[in-house]
Specification:
- By secondary structure, this protein is mainly α.
- The protein is about 75% helix and about 0% strand.
- Helix 3 runs parallel beside helix 5 and helix 13 packs antiparallel against helix 14.
- The relative contact order is 0.10.
- This is ABC-2 type transport system permease protein.
- Keywords: Membrane, Transmembrane, Transmembrane helix.
């Protein structure tokens, strides 16, 4: 009876941990960031509404070009099934990179009468929720446009080709990651478990690009020659189920898939994340420290952070994959994970700066944070450019665009970390901050695309947008430091 009671209490303990995590998100993530301002919330709601309307309208116009031809609509949805799986994979990869460094967020639960395994289980549930939110945000515009274009009758196709494939892929990927984590823990692999899983996901992402092209070709060929046999393309299993057995069978499959996914996410155990150092013992040149002590503080934060060191391993593997698979993209793109340390930079350095430099100029502080990220990634950019030159298949223009993107990402990540400081390295602040800046940039891009301005004007607008993102970061620093002093 005691053992049975202990088993029955586990769901209740998990719920308690999840409730505490929700309270943490409200009080630490939302209430201590710019979202605490009612004016900011109203402006963001307006931006999200306008962006959603524009994206839905563009999807509507794209879909309506086919007129009322049901066969064309079904063809578009069948193509979308492959994209839904790819978005699910990308969502799991992004969230996994962010969540793997967040054990500090669980420090608030150490006083609860729960085991370390149950605390990690709660983090995995949070990971699943975040991955589902990222996928939903990526696929919402197409779904909205489809409903507007074809009305309620198309909901079955949306469910069969978008919702259920994405939901099933998320469940399978998350459970496979958890089982791989358990297997590596059993054989004694410690701190490298998270990195190995991320590298495996990156390999799957790289391979998926070729798979998606082949999938698109087969779907297009089947549309031209009269169609393939049902249940031959696994992304279309729910679509074929709808075609062969009708809506009731699809709804039954939806209920079964949802319940199965929820049970697996809740019941499959997860090993506790091993304790790892937050910083590595890397020495900076003594002359640099003497000449620029303030900048050296930021450079040490960037160079010694485990986020940067771990992501360098990920970037190196990605660069090797790009070269080995002869992917038609610049190796510089592989360095995007390196600048992700900017998400956590401000939250890490701000407590010390409030003590030693409480009145430091916010523009200068922001410039130093971005400069530290750029100095770290710059030598690797040079190495990636040499790889591009040796490969001989990447144009200088493509390499230059990749370099500009990586440098711009450093600005964006630092700005995100400044407006929504990632206290305790929590991933929720990063995703919310990225969503805030992403919505603003997407809205501006949509406006420029609608107006159809000349290329020179678009480039100038991109530069202005880059400056605006930096200004948002500076404003975030000013706001958060003011709140810290009050």
């Amino acid at each position: 009876m005691v053992a049975r009671g202990a088993v029955l209490e586990r769901p209740a303990r998990l719920v308690q941990v999840l409730r505490l995590l929700a309270l943490y998100i409200v009080r630490v993530v939302v209430s201590r960031g710019i979202l605490a301002s009612r004016t900011v919330r109203r402006v963001l709601v307006l931006c999200v509404t306008v962006t959603g309307l524009l994206m839905g309208s563009l999807s509507y116009l794209f879909l309506r070009q086919s007129g009322d031809d049901a066969q064309v609509a079904v063809f578009v949805f069948r193509l979308m099934a492959g994209s839904a799986l790819l978005w699910a994979l990308l969502s799991v990869l992004v969230v996994r990179v962010l969540v793997q460094g967040s054990p500090e967020m669980m420090a608030t639960t150490t006083l609860l009468p729960v085991t370390a395994r149950e605390r990690q289980h709660a983090v995995n549930v949070l990971e699943a929720v975040l991955a589902a939110c990222v996928s939903a945000a990526a696929l919402s515009s197409f779904t909205t446009g489809a409903v507007l274009a074809y009305g309620a009758p198309v909901m079955a196709e949306v469910l069969a080709c978008v919702v259920l494939p994405c939901l099933s892929a998320l469940t399978v990927l998350l459970i496979l990651c958890r089982l791989a984590d358990l297997a590596m823990a059993v054989v004694g692999i410690g701190g490298m478990r998270a990195n190995i899983i991320v590298l495996a996901l990156m390999l799957v992402v790289v391979r998926s690009w070729g798979w998606l092209a082949d999938y698109t070709r087969r779907v297009s060929a089947s549309a031209l020659d009269g169609g393939e046999e049902p249940f031959t393309l696994w992304p279309l299993v729910f679509h074929d189920l709808l075609t062969v057995h009708g809506v009731p069978a699809l709804l039954l499959a939806a209920v079964v898939a949802t319940m199965t996914g929820a049970v697996l996410i809740l019941l499959v155990p997860a090993p506790p994340v091993p304790v790892r150092p937050r910083y590595y013992a890397l020495r900076l040149p003594g002359r640099l420290v003497a000449l620029a002590p303030s900048f050296s503080y930021h450079l040490a934060q960037a160079a010694r952070s485990r986020f940067v060191v771990d992501n360098l391993m990920i970037s190196g593997t990605a660069a090797v994959l790009i070269l080995a698979l002869r992917a038609p993209i610049s190796s510089v793109w592989a360095l995007e994970p390196v600048v992700m340390g900017g998400f956590f930079h401000y939250a890490s350095v701000n407590p010390g700066l409030l003590v030693f430099l409480p009145r430091q100029n916010t523009v200068w502080l922001y410039a130093q944070m971005v400069g530290a990220q750029v100095v770290i990634v710059l030598p690797f950019i040079v190495g990636a450019l040499l790889l591009d030159a040796m490969a001989g298949v990447i144009t200088p223009q493509a390499s230059a665009i990749a370099c500009a993107s990586v440098i711009s990402s450093a600005v964006v990540t630092v700005s995100v970390g400044s407006i929504m400081p990632a206290h305790d390295d929590n991933p929720v602040s990063v995703l919310l901050g990225t969503a805030i800046i992403g919505v603003i940039l997407l809205l501006a891009a949509l406006m420029l695309g609608i107006v159809q301005l000349p290329v020179v004007v678009n480039i100038s607008a991109a530069i202005v947008g880059w400056i605006a993102v930096a200004a948002i970061g500076v404003a975030g620093i000013s706001y958060n430091r003011k709140v810290s002093h009050s």
